[in-house]
Design a protein that fits this description.
Helix content: 55-70%
Radius of gyration: 22 Å
Oligomer: single chain
Shape: globular
Number of strands: 2
Strand order of the largest sheet: 1-2
C-alpha cells in the first residue's frame, strides 16, 4: 500500500478542515460568542496537517484500488475525529457524544445527541451544518477536484466514495467530474438559501437549512426541526430541494446541458418518484380511513414532507409521525431502508439497486419452470448489466440487512423496545436520522449508552461508504501482500 501518499492526503484533509473552521470562527465574532474553541480546534488540525502535507513526499503517486479503500475510510474517520473537536472545546458535549455528533454530520445521517439545539452557540450550529454539507457530496470527491495540483489521478477514490452500484462520469477526467458535481451542489445550496431567506427565515437559519437540505443531512437549528417555522412556503421550498438532492447529480447535469429527454426517461428516476408517490398515496388513504381526516392541504403537505424527508434520508420533521398509525410507521421504515437515487447525496439501498433487483427477479420468474428457456440479461441504460454487478448487489443487500439486524439486536440487548431497536438499526445504516420509539421524529439519541452510540457511529460510516469500503478493511486478506 502507498502509505506515504495516504499520509500526504491525510495531511491535506486536516488542512482543509482547519481552514473550513474559519467560517464558524467568523460567525462567533459576528454573534459575540467565544472564538477560542474554534481557534483551538482549527489550530490543532493545521498544526498536525501542514507538516505532513508539506513534509511527506511520496515517490509513487499512483492510487491502487486497495489505496482507495484505505484512503477513503481513513479520510472519513479522520474528519469525524477532528470534526468533533469544536463540540468538545466549546464544552457543549463530552468526547463520545461529540464523536457521535461529528460522525452523524459528516455521514449526513442527522441523528443528534443534543437535547436542546436552540441553547447551543450559533457558531457551533453553523459548524454542525457545514459538516453535513461537506459530507453530502463527499470530502473525498472535493479533494479529487484539487488532486491535479498534486499530480494525482483519483478514479479509485471516486469509485470508492460515490454512492451507488454504477459510477457514471460526466467528463472523461474524474477531477473534471468532481468539479461539475460540486458546481451543481453549490448552485442548489445557494438557490435554496436565498429562497428560504425570501420566505422569511433569518439569514442564519436560511444558510444552515440550505446546507443541510442539499446534503440530505437534516440537522436543524430548531428543536422542532422545520416544523418550528410554521410556514407552508418554507416547507414547500424544502420539499422541492430535498427531492432535487435525492436525484442523481449526473441527471442534474444532463438537464442543465439541455438533455431533457435523458432526464425524464431515466428509469431509476421514474422508479424513485413512483415510490414517493405511492407511499404518499398509501399513507394518506390509510389515515383518511382510520382517522376521518378532511384531506386538507396541511395534512397533504405534512405527509408529503415526511415521505420525501425519509425517502431521501434528510430526516427533517414538521409533525411527530410517532402519532401516526402502525401502517404509516411500516411504510416509513421501508422508505428509510430504500433511500434515494444512486449518485445523489441520499443514503439507503439506492433506487438503482432496487430497479435492477426487480428486473432480475422478474426475469427469473418468467423463465421459472421452463428448462429450455433463454433468459435475457438484465439491462440498464440500454446495456446488459454484468453478472458480477448483479452478484455484488445481492451480496450488498445481504450485508446491508445483516448489519441492520446486528445493530438492532445490540440496541435491544440494552433493554430497548423493538420499534426503537429496529428503527435505530435502519436509520444508522441508511443514514436517515430520525426513528421510532424512544428515538422519535426529532432524533433523540442522547439517552443511549456510550457503547450503542459508538456502534451507531460505525454503522453510519459503513452505510455512508456503501458498506464494503469500510468492511473490506476488517478482512485479514486485505492486509496481506
Amino acid at each position: 500500500m502507498n502509505i506515504l501518499l495516504s499520509a500526504q492526503l491525510a495531511g491535506w484533509l486536516l488542512v482543509l478542515l482547519g481552514g473550513v473552521q474559519l467560517a464558524p470562527l467568523a460567525a462567533a465574532l459576528y454573534f459575540g460568542e467565544p472564538t477560542t474553541p474554534f481557534l483551538a480546534a482549527g489550530a490543532v488540525a493545521l498544526f498536525l496537517g501542514l507538516p505532513i502535507a508539506l513534509g511527506v513526499q511520496p515517490d509513487n503517486l499512483k492510487i491502487r484500488p486497495r489505496d482507495g479503500f484505505f484512503i477513503v475510510t481513513g479520510a472519513w474517520l479522520l474528519a469525524s475525529l477532528f470534526g468533533a473537536l469544536p463540540y468538545v472545546t466549546t464544552g457543549a458535549l463530552v468526547p463520545v457524544d461529540a464523536l457521535f455528533e461529528s460522525v452523524s454530520g459528516f455521514t449526513t445521517t442527522g441523528s443528534t445527541v443534543m437535547g436542546d439545539v436552540e441553547s447551543m452557540p450559533r457558531s457551533l450550529l453553523l459548524w454542525r451544518s457545514i459538516t453535513q454539507w461537506l459530507g453530502g457530496m463527499g470530502i473525498v470527491v472535493f479533494t479529487i477536484a484539487l488532486m491535479p495540483i498534486l499530480g494525482i489521478g483519483g478514479m479509485q477514490l471516486f469509485k470508492a466514495e460515490v454512492p451507488g452500484p454504477v459510477t457514471e462520469k460526466i467528463k472523461p477526467r474524474v477531477a473534471e467530474t468532481a468539479r461539475r458535481l460540486w458546481l451543481i451542489y453549490v448552485g442548489l445550496t445557494v438557490i435554496e438559501g436565498f429562497a428560504l431567506w425570501f420566505a422569511g427565515l433569518s439569514g442564519f437559519d436560511a444558510i444552515c437549512h440550505a446546507l443541510t437540505t442539499s446534503s440530505t443531512g437534516g440537522f436543524s437549528t430548531r428543536n422542532d426541526s422545520v416544523g418550528s417555522f410554521d410556514s407552508a412556503t418554507v416547507e414547500w421550498i424544502v420539499i422541492v430541494f430535498m427531492l432535487l438532492a435525492g436525484i442523481n447529480f449526473v441527471l442534474h447535469y444532463k438537464l442543465l446541458a439541455g438533455r431533457v429527454k435523458d432526464f425524464f426517461e431515466d428509469r431509476e428516476l421514474r422508479y424513485f418518484l413512483a415510490v414517493v408517490a405511492f407511499a404518499m398515496a398509501a399513507i394518506t388513504f390509510f389515515m383518511w380511513n382510520q382517522e376521518g381526516a378532511d384531506g386538507s392541504e396541511p395534512l397533504f403537505r405534512s405527509i408529503l414532507f415526511t415521505v420525501v424527508s425519509l425517502s431521501t434520508g434528510t430526516g427533517y420533521a414538521t409533525v411527530n409521525f410517532e402519532l401516526w398509525p402502525a401502517f404509516g410507521h411500516l411504510v416509513l421504515l421501508i422508505l428509510m431502508a430504500l433511500g434515494g437515487m444512486a449518485g445523489s447525496t441520499s443514503g439507503g439501498v439506492k433506487s438503482l439497486r432496487a430497479v435492477l433487483v426487480i428486473d432480475a427477479v422478474r426475469k427469473n420468474l418468467k423463465t421459472a419452470g421452463h428448462r429450455n428457456a433463454v433468459r435475457s440479461p438484465v439491462q440498464h441504460a440500454g446495456k446488459p448489466v454484468p453478472d458480477d454487478v448483479l452478484a455484488g448487489i445481492w451480496v450488498f443487500l445481504a450485508v446491508y440487512a445483516a448489519l441492520i439486524a446486528l445493530m438492532s439486536l445490540t440496541i435491544a440487548a440494552y433493554g430497548y423496545d423493538m420499534e426503537t431497536a429496529l428503527s435505530g438499526g435502519i436509520t444508522s445504516v441508511a443514514n436517515v436520522g430520525p426513528g421510532l420509539g424512544e428515538i422519535g421524529a426529532f432524533d433523540d439519541f442522547g439517552h443511549f449508552p456510550a457503547p450503542i452510540k459508538l456502534s451507531l457511529a460505525f454503522c453510519m460510516i459503513a452505510g455512508r461508504l456503501e458498506l464494503f469500503t469500510v468492511l473490506v478493511l476488517l478482512s485479514p486478506g486485505f492486509w496481506r501482500r
